[in-house]
Design brief:
This protein has about 70 residues and is mostly beta strands. It contains one helix and five strands, in the order βββββα. Strands 1, 2, 3, 4 and 5 form a five-stranded antiparallel β-sheet that branches. A hairpin with a 6-residue loop joins strand 1 and strand 2. The longest helix has 7 residues. The protein is globular.
């Protein structure tokens, strides 16, 4: 599904996060310094016009987040 920028309506392209493990995750619970075992991986999308970045939970990651206790 094509994603468009909420700021300028240009196309968003999927990017990747470079870091320690190469991914970024979210959880409903605070985990302090260390990320716990239960987190949902987010995918960054970057605007090709203005550089705005949006993060999405894709595929089963959204369901995983919804079902987190």
């Amino acid at each position: 599904m094509k994603k468009t920028c909420n700021k300028c309506s240009s196309e968003l392209i999927k990017g990747y996060i470079k870091g320690l493990q190469g991914e970024l995750g979210v959880s409903k619970k605070s985990s302090g310094i260390f990320i716990g075992l239960n987190y949902s991986e987010v995918s960054p999308y970057i605007c090709t016009n203005c550089g705005f970045i949006e993060y999405y939970l894709e595929g089963n990651e959204l369901e995983k987040f919804k079902n987190e206790k």
